[in-house]
What does this fold into?
Amino acid sequence: MFRTIDSFGDLVDAVWGVLTSMRLNDIVDIVILSFIIYHAIKLIRETRALQLVQGIILLVVCYLLAIIFELQTIRFLLKTCFNWGILVIAILFQPELRRMIEKIGRAKISDLSFIPSSDSSDAGDMWTPAINAICEAARDLSATCTGALIICERKTRLGEQIDTGTILDCQPSAAVFGNIFYPNTPLHDGAVILRDGKILAAGCFLPKPQKEELIAKQLGSRHRAAIGMSENSDSVVIVVSEETGTISVAENGELTRGYTKESLAQLLRERLIPDTQSENGSGNLAGRVMSRWKK
It folds into this structure.
């Protein structure tokens, strides 16, 4: 069934034969396919579909083993699964697939290159004062156990949520956040949305999480709204608990808790100012928070 290679020389000859028979369009074909696979892996890695891909790879390996060892029953069952698998995947993982397609649609040309661009100067100018104000406000609100919900918009535009709130369009400061979230004021129950480092709207309503029943019961409505917002966009959502004063952050449907002013500032710089990602080591911050809450 398979042609065996008896020596290393035969292997070299086989590889050289493939290389010499390649044409320019074959090289272009391989480069484009590699480009698509590279960015597909980057997209899948940020969603729950990663576990799905791992399961599919395992099934493919089992199918190949069934062919090699002539296990006809297992081969028939796996082939049937593959025939209906695309439809089942589209139904079960519709939210993840929709978010992946939306992310492809909002990507810029510079985002699709193998070498990341360094256009962080404007982002730094816009977001640095806002990050300082957010962190000061989070610290003050945490000390008084005042509930707060702050959303930092990134590439996904939050027009639907902004329309549900009150347009402010003002510069952020600890005093402004304190006034917005002061108990029993008209806007304190909703979320504040920041765009390009400015407070765009307050008192905004957020979508519910997709699988609310899987969220820990001790988490309140603000935390659930934060998880729901992070599932539907790439925004960074900061939550201050009204019961404990704990500062939390929701991203990609996950909630991390136990932030201080300093650790929150570091995370926001890493997420909102691209240039700081390589300098601060964003991968290590999650391990320094107190706990992680998943859906």
